[in-house]
Amino acid sequence: MVTLRRHRLLLLLVAAGLLAAVATLGARVRIESAYRTVEVAVDGEDWRDLAVREGADPARLLREAKARGATSLAIYEVTLQRMADRGRLYYLSGAEVINAARLGAMAAPLAGLAAAGRIRPDAVYVAADPGVLQFVARGFTDYLGDGRVSIIAGSPPVLQVLGQKKDLEDMGLGFLPDELAEAKAHRLTPVLRPRNYHGLTEETVARRFARYAELGRNQTFIFDQTEVLGFERLIGPVAQHMNRLGYNMGRIEAFTERRQQRGEAALVARLRPNVIRVFSISGLELPRLRPPEAADRFVRAARERNIRLLYVRPFLRTTAGIDPIELNLDYVLRITYHLRRHGFHLGEARPLPPVEPPRGLIVVMAAGALAAGVLLLAELAATVGSKPSLVLLLVLVAAGVVLTVALRLVGGLTLWRKLLALGTAVVFPSMAVVAVLLRVRSASGGLAVAARSLGALWAASGLSALGGLLVAALLSQWSFMTADRIFMGVKVAHLMPPLLIAWLLWSAQEGGEGWAYLVTPVRRWMDEPLRVRYAIVVGLIALLVVLLLARTGNINLPLLEVEERLRTVTERVLVARPRTKEFLLGHPALMLAAAAAALGLRRWTIPLAALGSVGQAGLVNSFSHIHTPVLYTVWRTLNGLVLGSLVGLVAVGVLLWVLRKTSPPRTLH
Fold it and tell me: Helices in 579-629 by DSSP H: which ranges?
């Protein structure tokens, strides 16, 4: 590639950007290495239900879960419904009381109130022990005010709450002191699960948080149901109170916006960095998994995605002959054992500290990314006979640097960093594959071909990895590391490199410059009749492209069973599981492309190189997963290269064997 040789100054800028990236990632690695405490919280409601269904003591089950490594207990805000299910109180709507009294089916004290005409149909009536009644009355008063809540004196007293039963029975009333005391008695940290109420006002929010403050500072909230507290117009006041009390928000991992709790993004923006990432398997999905599979998901979440609070629900249904209690305790033990085995500490999770590269390093990294981009533009321009001057290229880089500084000053840098990262993810694998393949020397001996193929893979992957480091550094920011923001343009980063590689290699093979050298072969090819075999090949290529694009991003096609098993095996053996499309497809294809170049098989070099770019694009894309620790990504990349090299050597060996069978003996020896 002549452009690289002509413009060494641009290469120096790229090198400077890479050095800044290494410095940035060094600081990030230190933060990630210290962020190793994982909290294992068991769902209080579900684990209690498990104990009751099996005739076991709930307190004893919690002690056993603690002994297996559980660190926390999730406690829900109580409601009339939940307390009634536990036998703590009894409640009826006023209409139900009146109708039951007509039939003579109502006992004191409600029967006496009905006989005296003191029951209102538009109210709910609650009977309970005095302490519970006071707790419930206070909870309703916080939300509804004194005018709608009153205790009717009697023996025993009855609580009257004005409103509809269907609205009041699911209203969060606070956290029972005895449940909090039980958690502390078992040395389990309470994780609180408040729920939203649509009738909130700023005044009622203040009253609720005054009550929460009695529980102490530095609590962790994981909001119940589908909304955060305060959704949708009172998120600001809720955030102010949480920040004042030092409360953390547990944000449940969701791969689509539809699965997120409503209002969570707005609340996270106001709470950062007091946010802890949470992984949970829903009660609907859990029955479809085996305990070892579910446990592996929890451990993988902590290891690969910086998740530090694991929310564990029990398996409520098991197959015949299996003790549900022991199965679930072993399930918790499996999670905590493997967490410890991978170097994590069990304890109370804390938020990820703020992460942001210094301003100067961001500018230098931007200059490096811009310089790499204009080098690719110059190379593309050369294919059509244009040779932009070094001055013009430097002006383009300088303009980008000025834009970076300006956006840094006005606070709009995040989108620009995303665009720079996307450009880097396209440029580096494209330039790496082309630069390496154009330097592959001819060879005829089998060992020489294999050596050149292996060297080409590792050289191209090394260059691509440099681009991956630059991408990772550009996006090293708290919001990306907690997956509040994500890399932009995953599919573009996978689609563009094959196209650019094919274009650049084709223009190099044609050996000329200008449009005529490129358009003439295309016209000649377009004049050819369409043969069935070509149509089939084009169709297969299109199908492969669609499948590869569908398998990128957070939402993709389901895995085949054989692929799922392969992933499990590689994860258990190698710990940092390499990507299947890299070591089974991309890396071997790139080695075959290098072998084809060494053997002079020009017609096969370009399609194999385009296919090989899948591995290089995937390699860079691994570094764009900013929520994954950098060292883990490096480990995964090396594992993929080693496996890909082995598979590629086998593929090259098969190619050489086929050529021996189909070529004269003198061709290969």
Answer: 580, 587-599, 602-623
CA 557, 466, 34: angle at the middle one, nearest 5?
80
Answer positive or negative: Cα dihedral of 396, 397, 398, 401.
positive
Give the pLDDT confidence of 601-632 residue by residue, as tens digits.
888 899 999 999 999 999 999 999 999 999 99
CA pair distance 356, 377, nearest whole angstrom: 30
- Structure tokens of 644? 């890909």
Residue 123's nearest CA partner among 112, 134, 132, 114 is 114
445-484 residue pLDDT tens:
889 999 999 999 999 999 999 999 999 999 999 999 999 8
Q: Tell me, what's the pLDDT at 531? A: 64
List the one residue out of 136, 153, 132, 135 whose CA is nearest residue 88.
132
**251: helix, strand or coil:** strand
- Indicate whether 556 pLDDT > 60: no
Single out the residue of 491, 505, 504 nearest to residue 605, CA to CA. Answer: 505
Task: Decide if 160 contacts 150 (C-beta within 8 A).
Answer: yes
Pair of tokens at residue 296 = 């592996």
**Phi, psi for 413 (deg, rounded to 5):** -80, -20
Residue 225: name the closest of 266, 169, 297, 171 by CA. Answer: 171
Return the biggest CA–CA distance within the chain: 113
Dihedral sign for Cα 356, 359, 362, 364, please: negative
